Amino acid sequence: MDFDLAPPNGVGPLRIGMTRHAANTALDSLRDPSAISESDRPGQHVFRPSGLMISIHCMRDMLEAIELGRPSSQTDRVLFQGVDVFALPAREVVRRVGEFTSIEEDPDDDASIAPDLLLSFWRPFAADDEPEEEQGYYFSSVLLARPGYYDTPAQAAERLQQSS
Predict the structure, then answer these.
(1) What span, in angstroms and rounded, lies between the C-alpha atoms of 8 and 30?
(2) Is residue 5 within 8 Å of 11, Cβ to Cβ?
(3) Concatenated DSSP letters for 55-84?
(4) pTM of this prediction?
(5) Which helix (H) or strand (E) holds 42?
(6) What is the rounded CA–CA span in Å between residue 71 and residue 56?
């Protein structure tokens, strides 16, 4: 199954801003009834048979972020503008996503963030950028969140002032 990242709206049936109840229902719809994982936590995350983890983050009864973790097989793909974010090397993902938007590196967190879209790509051991070091060579997770998700209090106040 393909999961198309569509920032700032969401992915599949999960839509940023939907109620917690609606998000729980949407998350549950992404489970494979023939292969329910013992690791599933209703209202938090599900694991598909491919190993793809789909997690929701709600605050104030509203879906604020969706995180997807790298599958162990290619039966599920996570795409942004046709770029398979888990099958391609991390540097290639950054280069190709960078054709659509700006990408900022966060060396303290081994993350690459597209702040205008609020997509955050993460991998452990980014310094191990060698094909045989799979954990550092590919992204391990991607987060899609509401605009302002990473704002400091000062940035949030400025964003609020700009929108009024």
Answers:
(1) 20
(2) yes
(3) EEEEETTEEEEEEEE--SSTTSEEEETTEE
(4) 0.87
(5) none
(6) 17
pLDDT at position 129, please?
A: 62
Spell out, as residue ranges, where the chain has pLDDT lower than 50.
none
Q: 11 Cβ partners below 8 Å, 6+ apart?
A: 3, 4, 5, 66, 68, 78, 144
Nearest-angstrom CA–CA distance, 139 and 5? 15
- Give the alpha-carbon dihedral of 29, 148, 160, 62, to 10 degrees: 20
Q: Nearest to residue 44, comparing CAs of 35, 36, 52, 53?
A: 53
Instruction: Report the alpha-carbon distance of residue 31 to residue 40 in Å, rounded.
Output: 9
Query: In a 10 Å sphere around its CB, with 0-12 CB exposed, 13-18 middle and 19+ buried, how is residue 71 labelled?
Result: buried
Q: Which two tokens stand for residue 62?
A: 């509203």
